[in-house]
Design brief:
two-stranded antiparallel ribbon; binds nicotinamide-adenine-dinucleotide; 7-stranded mixed sheet; globular; 2 domains; alpha/beta; Rossmann fold; Dehydroquinate synthase-like, alpha domain; 355 residues; 15 helices
Length: 355
């Protein structure tokens, strides 16, 4: 399956990289390519990327340690220094080969390098293919708070090739499923039915073929594209994509420096349950049922509530000191904004602990 979405001048090319990337690159005439990868994607995705794109020379590469803990200013500094060494000019292209961390970080470095050079996202995780690589939000964590420094800047293109999923660990596939489930709950009920029909009770890696994944990704990306098209700078409906993230980001940050960090998707999956409970969502039982099919339960200790509340107070969606969350409304693509009080958060988390 092959498909091209168009989003504010950015093409999102779904399908075999070989069919899209070389021709796209030939038309552009960039002075040089600068690849950003992490240690895992260097080992597991770079050989395939080079083979599919027939790239042999004319590029430099910067490899960062893998993981959210490295989505920070130190890593930016390494990348910018490496760009300086490579004498990267403004006609260069930055290629981010990796999950959401590489995409957010490499994109941020590209968007700020000499006031901005072109970059493309080549997402290699399910989460990045369906969500992080699309929509032009770039950024890094600062002082332990998620995505505090960042910019909006669309990539020149996004190349979504599901064949990269073959090496992705089961836990990371499930993490990506959380954002797909979010998109389904926001605006694609039939996508949820497909996931429940095909992915329950089997290792996710075995559930779908490349074409099967392309079909799921097509439906999921379509939701994100529609919302970003309507509201590129998040002045309105784009906040809907933050469903589950007010609690989820706080959980992700809180557990990041513990012995058992949560993946982004695992944190969002918990966040969607808590926020649905807090907002009195009518489909709460369905959301719990879906969650139980794909995610193991993680107890949130009451001793964490205070720190979680502090993290939530730093959330970007807040206005005039009030903590806010967004929930899907009754109609597809409609939303409700709800103000969160600390007692609500505590009740939501306690409810999650009890299910
Ligand atoms: N910009 C946005 O709009 C947006 C949206 C959602 C999430 N995000 C961000 O995305 C990040 C989470 O992304 P993620 O879940 O992709 O995390 P990630 O980038 O850390 O990738 C998860 C793990 O998988 C490894 N990996 C990547 N591709 C692989 C492959 N093909 N085979 C084997 N291993 C592979 C990585 O090295 C890493 O260890 C968070 O920082 C989140 O804030 C951004």
């Amino acid at each position: 399956m092959s498909h091209i979405f168009h989003l504010d001048g950015c093409s999102i090319l779904l399908g075999d990289l070989k069919a899209h990337f070389p021709a796209w690159l030939r038309e552009r005439g960039y002075s040089r390519l600068f690849l950003v990868a992490d240690t895992n994607t260097q080992e597991l995705c770079l050989p395939c990327f080079l083979e599919k794109t027939s790239l042999q020379e004319g590029f430099s590469i910067e490899v960062m340690p893998a993981g959210e803990r490295f989505k920070n200013l130190d890593s930016c500094q390494h990348i910018w220094l490496s760009m300086l060494d490579a004498r990267l000019d403004r006609r260069a292209l930055v290629v981010n080969l990796g999950g959401g961390v590489v995409g957010d970080l490499g994109g941020f470095c590209a968007a700020t390098w000499k006031r901005g050079v072109d970059f493309v996202q080549v997402p290699t995780t399910l989460l990045a293919m369906t969500d992080a690589a699309i929509g032009g939000k770039l950024g890094i964590d600062f002082q332990g708070v998620k995505n505090t420094l960042g910019v909006f800047q669309n990539p020149a293109a996004v190349f979504v090739d599901p064949s990269f999923l073959k090496t992705l660990p089961e836990r990371e596939l499930r993490s990506g499923l959380a954002e797909i489930i979010k998109h389904a709950l926001i605006g694609a009920p039939s996508l949820l039915e497909k996931i429940m029909a095909e992915c329950v009770g089997v290792p996710i890696g075995d559930a779908l073929s490349d074409d099967g994944w392309a079909g799921v990704l097509h439906a999921s990306i379509a939701v994100k594209v529609r919302i970003v098209q309507d509201d590129p700078m998040e002045k309105g409906v784009r906040a809907l994509l933050n469903f589950g993230h007010t609690i989820g980001h706080a959980l992700e940050s809180y557990f990041l420096d513990t012995a058992e960090p949560l993946t982004h998707g695992e944190a969002i999956a918990i966040g969607m349950i808590c926020e649905s409970r807090m907002g009195g969502a009518v489909n709460l039982e369905d959301i719990i049922a879906v969650n139980k099919c794909f995610f193991t339960h993680r107890h949130i200790p009451a001793s964490a509530f205070s720190a979680l509340w502090d993290l939530m107070r730093q959330d970007k969606k807040n206005a005039a000191g009030a903590v806010r969350m967004t929930l899907p409304g009754d109609e597809p693509f409609s939303m409700r904004m709800v103000e969160v009080k600390r007692e609500m958060m505590e009740e939501g988390l306690a409810f999650y602990n009890s299910i």
